[in-house]
Design a protein that fits this description.
The structure holds 2 protein chains of 2 kinds.
Chain A lengths: L3 E4 L2 E4 L5 E7 L7 E6 L6 E5 L3 E2 L7 E6 L2 E6 L9 E6 L6 E2 L3 E5 L1
Parallel strand pairs in A: 2-11
Antiparallel strand pairs in A: 1-3, 3-8, 4-5, 4-9, 5-6, 7-8, 9-10, 9-11
Chain B lengths: L2 E5 L10 E8 L8 E6 L5 E7 L6 E3 L7 E6 L4 E6 L8 E8 L8 E4 L3 E3 L4
Antiparallel strand pairs in B: 1-2, 2-7, 3-4, 3-8, 4-5, 6-7, 8-9, 8-10
């Protein structure tokens, strides 16, 4: 099983600041990594697929990078609606796995 | 509008069974792999099972193998999850999710609102 480790667990930032979230895989997943945003009481929403492609309707302030085992989700300037939990997920091998999540909270 | 709507959740006793359904609309259901993803209270996301477009290919997380069965009916645009021998560790919100992309095996691009399954005596 491919284990995805997200860091940090919690990121405390202010609106307007830049957020950098990390996801590390226990073995290479190529570029087959996605990022999701989840707000309390809501279903997850796809942000980034295949490491660096923004999903439909996702603002340009969200960007993804990386390949192999190290991936980054960057939010260039946090908006109030961006404070949420973010998960990475790999589809390289079965079982599909998610990272433990990074909570982006208001400082 | 592209939409997934789950139903069938509810309180079940340990050792019991429950069947979940997911009704799809607004897209060509038979062109996409479909999956179930769950989230225990206060915890992260866990993929549970996936089924290929024609239903012939199925995959499960180890913890549910032999207990859960995923199926689909393309004529009814519906996805199902039959859950047997439930334990407290199966307590979660269960989400139906579409896998997107050109092949229909991509990331989870459409999610339902989720249905809660508490397992308790």
């Amino acid at each position: 099983e491919i284990v995805l480790t997200q860091s940090p667990a919690t990121l405390s930032l202010s609106p307007g600041e830049r957020a950098t979230l990390s996801c590390r895989a226990s073995q290479s997943v190529g570029s087959l990594l996605a990022w999701y945003q989840q707000k309390p009481g809501q279903a997850p929403r796809l942000l980034i697929f295949d490491a660096s492609n923004r999903a439909t309707g996702i603002p340009a302030r969200f960007s993804g990078s990386g390949s192999g085992t190290d991936f980054t989700l960057t939010i260039s300037s946090l908006e109030p609606e961006d404070f949420a939990v973010y998960y990475c997920q790999q589809r390289s091998k079965w079982p599909l796995t998610f990272g433990g999540g990074t909570k982006v909270e208001v400082k | 509008e592209v939409q997934l709507v789950e139903s069938g959740g509810g309180l079940v006793q340990p050792g019991g069974s429950l069947g979940l359904s997911c009704a799809a609309s607004g897209f060509t259901f038979s062109s996409h792999c479909m999956s179930w993803v769950r989230q225990a209270p206060g915890k992260g996301l866990e993929w549970v099972a996936s089924i290929g477009q024609d239903g012939s290919e199925k995959h499960y997380v180890d913890s549910v193998k032999g207990r859960f069965t995923i199926s689909r009916d393309n004529a009814k645009n519906s996805l199902y999850l039959q859950m047997d021998s439930l334990t407290a560790e199966d307590t979660a919100v269960y989400y139906c999710a579409r896998r997107g992309g050109a092949t229909g095996w991509g990331a989870f691009d459409i999610w339902g609102q989720g249905t809660m399954v508490p397992v308790s005596s």
